[in-house]
Write a structure and sequence with these properties.
Blueprint (H helix, E strand, L loop, with lengths): L1 E2 L8 H5 L3 H7 L1 E15 L2 E11 L17 E12 L5 E12 L5 E6 L6 H8 L4 H15 L8 E4 L6 E3 L5 E4 L6 E3 L6 E3 L6 E3 L6 E3 L6 E3 L6 E3 L6 E3 L6 E3 L6 E3 L6 E3 L6 E3 L6 E3 L6 E3 L6 E3 L4 E4 L10 E3 L9 H8 E3 L3 E6 L2 E6 L11 E2 L1
Parallel strand pairs: 7-9, 8-10, 9-11, 10-12, 11-13, 12-14, 13-15, 14-16, 15-17, 16-18, 17-19, 18-20, 19-21, 20-22, 21-23, 22-24, 23-25, 24-28, 25-29
Antiparallel strand pairs: 1-6, 2-3, 3-4, 4-5, 5-6, 26-27, 27-28
């Protein structure tokens, strides 16, 4: 539901609730319902079906717009697939907009983009003499527009055996628990948890969260902005399309970002990280790691232990080395004078017992704008 009211402090809900709908029926002057040949445009959408109820409201005569025909207000409902009785009142179909207008068809209060409002329910209330029926119909309009707070994701629980578990188009939570499981999320934003065992998790479409758990797992994010965690074991993580976040966790892991702007973290162990296409961030974490940025301007994080970058490109726009974790290196001048040395394999940057090797690069090629401090 989208409010399109123009009167300050008033909405469709305030205008219709509290007996006002019953007042409208009691002061009815005329009805025109059916196809609207010229179409009526509300908030940019033109409608061809609807009904206009002309009624008199003495309390609004102050605006100088009282019609010579004896009415000064118009209640309009517009929608689709409508049928009408002999008087022009809609008996079936979908109501998509409800507005109160003055005689010049200027919207005073109202809303469009209504969902789940039935013309049949309106007809029952309109033809009833009960105020309770009116109130029930009006309340149903706003209840239909409220989100279902009790709606929960579909949850699937595996067992200790090896299983194949597959989600549907909804947002699924699938827990493999024990066993060597194969889990696919399907469409939707899914949460997949492998549990113990050597599991294979595929997020597929949607922005998914995949957690391998214990064991040597394989995780594929698929399409969407996914979050992948290997957990314990020697894991392999593929981000796929989208801006993904990959964390190898403990163990000797391999991470591939794929397309998009990915964030790769090796965690503990001797890991190997490939950024792939896009401007990625690679952080080996603890352990002696190998970092390969791939295409695009990537950011490499200096971390603990001895890491190496296989493809640092000083000519690539946006290619950076983040030395903010190197407490002993304060500036580019300090770096070149005290912490960078040319070796047979490339430039070796050291900070205490931690180091980072830039393979195939010389100190002469480095510039201040290659680094973050």
């Amino acid at each position: 539901m989208r409010d399109i009211s123009t009167l300050p402090g008033q909405t469709l809900q305030s205008e219709t609730q509290g007996g006002n709908f019953y007042f409208l029926k009691a002061n009815l002057v005329s009805i025109y319902g059916g196809d609207i040949p010229s179409g009526m445009s509300l908030a940019g959408k033109a409608y061809s079906q609807g009904v206009a109820f002309n009624y008199y409201d003495a309390g609004s005569s102050w605006d100088g717009m009282v019609s010579s025909a004896g009415w000064n207000r118009k209640f309009v409902m517009l929608g689709s697939n409508m049928t009408f009785d002999a008087a022009g009142v809609p008996t079936s179909g979908d109501i998509e907009a409800m507005v109160f207008m003055n005689v010049h068809e200027h919207v005073l209060v109202g809303a469009d983009q209504l969902e789940g409002v039935s013309a049949a329910d309106f007809y029952q209330a309109w033809t009833s003499s009960s105020l309770a029926d009116d109130t029930a119909f009006i309340n149903s309009i706003f209840e239909a527009d409220e989100p279902d707070d009790d709606e929960e994701d579909s949850v699937v629980e595996g067992t200790s055996a090896a299983e194949t578990l597959t989600g549907d188009a909804e947002d699924n939570v699938i827990n493999g628990n024990g066993g060597n499981d194969t889990i696919s999320g399907g469409a939707g934003n899914d949460s997949l948890n492998g549990g113990s065992g050597r599991d294979k998790l595929r997020g597929e479409a949607g922005s998914d969260d995949l957690q391998g758990g214990g064991g040597n797992d394989k995780l594929w994010g698929g399409r969407g902005n996914d979050n992948l965690g290997g957990g314990g074991g020697k894991d392999k993580l593929w981000g796929g399309a989208g801006n993904d976040k990959l964390d190898g966790g403990g163990g000797k892991d391999k991470l591939w970002g794929g397309g998009g702007k990915d964030d790769l973290s090796g965690g503990g162990g001797k890991d190997k990280l490939w950024g792939g296409r896009g401007s990625d961030t690679l952080d080996g974490g603890a352990g002696n790691d190998v970092l390969i940025g791939g295409k695009g301007g990537d950011t490499f994080i200096f971390s603990s232990s001895a890491d190496k970058i296989k493809d640092f490109d000083t000519e690539q726009t946006g290619e950076l080395i983040d030395l903010s974790n190197a407490d002993g290196i304060g500036s580019f001048r300090d770096l070149i004078a005290n912490h960078a040395a040319d070796t047979r394999d490339g430039v070796l940057i050291t900070d205490g017992s931690d180091s980072l090797l830039l393979e195939g690069v010389t100190t002469a090629e480095l510039q201040a704008d290659d680094f973050l401090f």
